[in-house]
Specification:
It is a single chain. The protein has 384 residues and is α/β, with parallel strands linked by helices. The chain has 3 domains: 3-146, NAD(P)-binding Rossmann-like Domain (Rossmann fold); 151-298, no CATH class; 316-384, Rna Polymerase Sigma Factor, Chain: A. It is 46% helix and 15% strand. The chain has helices spanning 13-24, 40-50, 63-69, 81-88, 105-112, 123-140, 149-158, 183-187, 191-194, 204-212, 214-226, 265-273, 287-290, 305-315, 319-335, 343-354, 363-381, and strands at 3-8, 29-36, 54-57, 76-79, 94-97, 117-120, 143-146, 166-173, 234-238, 244-250, 255-259. The strands form 2 sheets. It has a 7-stranded parallel sheet, sandwiched between helices. A 4-stranded mixed sheet has the order 9-8-10-11, covered by helices on one side. Helix 4 runs parallel beside helix 5 (105-112), helix 5 (105-112) packs parallel to helix 6 and helix 16 (343-354) crosses helix 17 (363-381). The longest helix is centred in the last third of the chain and has 19 residues, at 363-381.
Length: 384
């Protein structure tokens, strides 16, 4: 049976992995919409290859190039934030939400409102708009399938038991490229060094988040939204080999772990085939060759991002949205060479201390908090 799919963020790393799997079972999928930020030529080539109904660039300045690249085809071209939302509203059986940052909120919400299945790879959606989004999922009868390797691992482990019987959930973290660096070395870290992740091939923003451990902090909040066991039952453990992606401990003492290669096609395949399974080209694990799996407690003195995320989760309300927005500003500033690596977490902490907004009740209120947090964070980057 053919299923329809929309891919929000087709030209990123998640998009590439998703389309690689769709390409391998082409007869099982009808592609409704593909979107990108401004990679018009690449997006057009993908839209032609997969016969998409519509291709959308978020940046309207790229629309003319997209239209030219699609000239002579029957594929519709559109641009801008409203076009993203419209594409997400076309009612695909499965929508893969892989737009990085707060830009993915509105189209993800539009897909949820259609009541279908959403494979969620956008961390900021549940971090910034967790209560609003989960309420919409329940209201519209949608299904959220977690695509992050950690949350997908938890999702798989929970299929063997009841969430009421969970004693603890453990999110594993690679520790990033700077796990063994001193504070002095971290201060001098360059974007090029931070972008060399030891295990995963990801986009720039997520890779920097992994280096600061903010990626795990955001996942902590996301896990709290997806798996309501209580914040005190969610833990973070550094696991440099990235073989165990997460673990669930039950009250009888049993701990279930999901293992797999460091390849996003594994959790994506879990979502594409759910509730079944599908083939992937990923090599099987060779545990004998690996030899040793190691684990360490996170060091929140050198990497305070997980502590900041925990504080935001405990505070609730608008705090997670402020954390996420300030982090996006700080990461962009680091990548642009404007701040030191260690300043990323400090900027987030300073923004959280300065900005206290009421809990957002709607998506527009979430976006307003996000905009205000960005304004405050950006203001801190200005010279005195």
């Amino acid at each position: 049976m053919t299923r329809s799919i929309t891919l929000l963020g087709a030209t990123g790393s998640i998009g590439a992995s998703t389309l690689d799997l769709v390409r391998r079972e082409r007869d099982k999928w009808r592609v409704v919409a593909l979107t990108a930020n401004c990679q018009a030529a690449e997006l057009a080539a993908l839209a032609r290859e997969f016969g998409a109904e519509i291709a959308v660039v978020a940046d309207e300045r790229c629309l003319a190039e997209l239209r030219e690249a699609l000239a002579g085809s029957d594929i519709e071209a559109a641009g801008g934030a409203a076009a993203l939302v419209e594409a997400a509203s076309r009612g695909a059986d499965l929508t893969v939400s892989a737009i990085v940052g707060c830009a993915g909120l509105a189209p993800t919400m539009a897909a949820i409102e259609q009541g279908g299945m959403i494979a969620l790879a956008n961390k900021e959606a549940l971090v910034s708009a967790g209560e609003v989004m989960t309420a919409a999922v329940e209201r519209h009868g949608a299904t959220l399938l977690p695509t992050d390797s950690e949350h997908n691992a938890i999702f798989q482990c929970l299929q063997a038991g009841r969430i009421e019987d969970v004693r603890a959930i453990t999110l594993t973290a690679s520790g990033g490229p700077f796990r063994d660096w001193s504070h002095e070395q971290l201060k001098a870290a360059t974007p090029a060094q931070a972008l060399k992740h030891p295990n995963w091939d990801m986009g720039a923003k997520i890779t920097i988040d992994s280096a600061t451990m903010m990626n795990k902090g955001l996942e902590y909040i996301e896990a709290h939204r997806l798996f309501p066991v209580g914040l005190e039952k969610i833990r973070i453990l550094v696991h440099p080999q990235s073989v165990i992606h997460s673990m669930v401990e039950y009250r009888d003492g049993s701990t279930l772990a999901q293992l797999g290669p460091s390849d996003m096609r594994v959790p994506i395949a879990s979502c594409l085939a759910w509730p079944g399974r599908m083939n992937t080209p990923c090599a099987p694990l060779d545990l004998a060759a690996l030899g040793t799996l190691s684990f360490f407690a996170p060091d929140e003195e050198r990497f305070p991002a997980t502590r900041l995320a925990r504080e935001a989760a405990e505070a609730g309300g608008a705090a997670p949205a402020v954390l996420s927005a300030a982090n996006e500003v700080a990461v962009a500033a680091f990548l642009a060479g404007k701040v030191e690596f260690t300043r990323i977490a400090l900027l987030v902490a300073e923004t959280m201390a300065q900005l206290h907004c009421p809990a957002p009740q709607t998506l527009s209120e979430v976006l307003a908090v996000d905009a205000e947090a960005r304004r405050v964070a950006a203001g801190m980057l200005e010279p005195a």
